[in-house]
Amino acid sequence: MFEHILVPIDGSSLSALALPVAAEMARCHRSTVTLLYVVPPLPVIYGEFAYAVNDVETGVRANAEGQRLLEDARTALGLPDVRLLCLQDGDPRIAQAIADVAAEQRCSLVVMGTHGRSGLDHFFLGSVAEGVVRRVGVPVLLVREPKPAAAGKGAADPPKLGV
């Protein structure tokens, strides 16, 4: 069903949480996996004049970091058929860049981590995951960080019913 799975990574703990889920999906469906790192746009420096920092050294360093993250993620997946893609000149909106790659690579599933923010955090920080869900034409599997166990209860304690 899912012949080609796209897994965007950014080096965060959330993208690391998505890797075992993507690996299991790939094993179950005998899928090819593409790991994607989108090099973030270079920052804009404000002062008397606004300009984008566009030096070659910064771009090379960001690309090298992306390649290292991709190689580490490939090792963590433990799958034989994993493609690596480090996108440096894509759409500066990361969600759109991910959607573009999903379409170009003809991916049938996107697996990615999400913070699951809501309220003001979501309003001010936005959500790359939400942007991807809105833009891609294939299913998106979002992996959230597990919620901590309630105070005084262990994660394995079953809920108490009645009485």
Structure, described:
The protein is an alpha/beta fold and 163 residues long. The protein has one domain (4-144): HUPs (Rossmann fold), CATH 3.40.50.620. It has helices at residues 13-29, 56-77, 94-104, 119-125, 128-135; strands at 4-9, 32-38, 44-45, 51-52, 82-87, 109-114, 140-144. Helix 3 packs parallel to helix 5. The longest helix is centred in the middle third of the chain and has 22 residues, at 56-77. Residues 120-125 have low confidence and may be disordered.
Low-confidence stretches: 120-125
Percent helix among the residues? 25-40%
Number of discrete helical segments: 5
In CATH terms, what is the fold-level topology? Rossmann fold
Rg estimate, integer Å:
18 Å
**CATH architecture descriptor:** 3-Layer(aba) Sandwich
Lateral strand order in the biggest sheet: 5-2-1-6-7
Per CATH, the superfamily is HUPs
Mean pLDDT: 80
Number of strands: 7
Strand and helix order: EHEEEHEHEHHE
In CATH, what is the class?
Alpha Beta
* Biggest beta-sheet profile: 5 strands, parallel
Task: Calculate the terminal CA-CA distance, rounded to whole Å.
Answer: 46 Å
Q: How many domains would you count in the coordinates?
A: 1
Shape: globular
Query: Which percent range describes the beta-strand content?
Result: 15-25%
Structural class: alpha/beta
Characterize this entry briefly.
Keywords: ATP-binding, Nucleotide-binding. With 163 residues, the protein is of the alpha/beta class.
